[in-house]
Please model this.
Amino acid sequence: MDKEQHFELLRESAAEVKELQDHLQKIRKQEAELQADRVTTLEKLKKARDKRFERITAAIGDKVPKAPIARELGMDRTNLYKLLDGKDDAADA
Model:
């Protein structure tokens, strides 16, 4: 194999490595964007859950029975009680 053939193989290898590095960089960028979206969505979820909890406690405060509240929310009544107990414990801490 002469010098030019070696150089051609080296250029092919360099191009392959560069292409893979570029692809990995694109993946890293996508991951960063997804992570940012995940963080934003988790913040929105927390706010939505807090709003739901406020509305639950307001309904309970207005003497709406818990079973219909749970049904309206599409959750099991025991989960509603756990939600209420968990928030009460957090408020005491």
